[in-house]
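User: I'm new to structure prediction. If I give you an amino acid sequence, what do you actually give back? Let's try with this one:
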Amino acid sequence: MSGSNDETLQSYGGRVRDYIEGTAQTVSGEAKDWIDAALSGLPTTARILELGSAFGRDAAYIASRGFEVDCTDAVAGFVTELQARGLNARRFNVLTDELGGRYDLIFANAVLLHFERDEFGFILKKLIRSIKAGGRLAFSLKKGRGEAWSSEKIGAPRFFCYWERQTLEPLLADAGFAAWTIDEARTSRAHAEWLFVRALAP
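Assistant: Good question. You get back a string of structure tokens that encode the predicted 3D arrangement of the chain. For your 202 residues, that looks like this:
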């Protein structure tokens, strides 16, 4: 695990309640449209894994659409919160742990933006090996250039890596994805510009 990711996880671990209280509690707008598109055409029996489920907002929305979601988070406090809300959850670190199965959809909203660029490429290659043929990976990133540390929102430092379409697409191709859609959206979040990605495994 990189030092930046370890410090980011420690910050989350110490500020679980701050994160929950400072985050929108419902799915709406561009993010909702993106999640709906990621689920479109999947049978309700589809196997879905969420990375970085936090307090379960997105998982609850996906479940409301008739799907079952396997929730995960690398922060123990979030796993406790998820389980208290009745969600199926386990502790999982995408850098160091094995996924243990193959999925129709792997979903990660505002999670992969916390990894350095070489880690991000490693994760894409790791995830595609656990996606069924024709399955999907859906993830969101902050749009921009460079990297930065920020203590906004939770009052503790978190690492962010920013992405542009032209820097992201070669990594998706290198990981082996057959096709992808990248929607650029301006949202009401603190960081307004986002990339909403849906990538298809061969």
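You can read the tokens as a compact description of the fold. Here is one thing that stands out. DSSP finds seven helices and nine strands in the chain.
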